[in-house]
Amino acid sequence: MSEEARLRDDICRWGSILYQRQLAHGSAGNLSMRLRDGTFLVTPTNSCLGFLKPEQISKVSAAGELLDGDPPSKESFFHLAMYEKRPKAGAIVHLHSTYAVAVSCLCHASPENVLPPLTAYHVMRVGKLPLVDYYRPGDKALAAAVGLRAQDHRSMLLANHGPIVSAESLDQAVFAYEELEETAKLFFILGERKTRPLNAAAIAEIDAAFPS
Q: Is 75 annotated in the active site?
């Protein structure tokens, strides 16, 4: 099996899993992967992640030109912007999961990191989560905003929209996304109760032991 065929299968498999886990709904959200030749596989526009077929997956150039498959997600441009700034990234997950989107709708004192470091696994897999200003769906100006944050962050949260998570592989990106959603869930469960997030020394120790 070729690299491209295997990655197409991986996207369909993980799309189905995310849909079954209720992290994806309707035709919302998109997945992408980088091929060794510098092209990209992206889930198609208006497709449901739970019912993808390998031949449907869009193959696009680094400039976003369709090379094969169905037309790509209208949000593929911000995937490409993130890949450009993160050369080690091999996959990106963008979903509209309930708790993470709820965090994106809140007012935050600082947009630099909108979820507290409640667990070591959030720090390891997600890192700091900055909030990107709101742009309407399909607005190409979002690419520049995502690219700016992607220089220093592997994950980010689009205001009133949802998270973007990158990693070296699709498996890792999915696991990081799930960790983000679980931290968002903890954030709401804890509510106004006094919490004890990890301090700067603990975070520095994790970052040294598990570099991103």
A: yes
Which residues have C-beta within 8 Å of that of residue 100, sequence separation ≥ 6?
Answer: 157, 162, 163, 180, 181, 184
For tokens 């720090």, name the residue. Answer: 123
Homologous superfamily of 3-209: Class II aldolase/adducin N-terminal domain (3.40.225.10)
H helices of the chain, in order, are 3-20, 76-85, 98-104, 120-125, 141-150, 170-190, 200-209
Residue type for position 195: T
What is the C-alpha separation between 88 and 98, in angstroms, rounded? 29
For residues 161-187, average pLDDT = 98
Q: Which of 121, 134, 182, 205 is catalytic?
A: 121
Residue 212 has a pLDDT of 77
Backbone CA torsion sign across 60, 147, 108, 166: positive
* Rounded mean pLDDT, 36-41: 97
Instruction: Report which DSSP code applies to 60.
Output: E
Catalytic option among 4, 19, 75, 181: 75
Q: What is the pLDDT of residue 95?
A: 98
Question: 117 with 205: CB under 8 angstroms?
Answer: no
Q: Any catalytic annotation for residue 205?
A: no
pLDDT digit string, tens, across residues 72-84:
999 999 999 999 9
- The whole-number pLDDT of residue 131 equals 98
For residue 154 the two structure tokens come to 């592997």
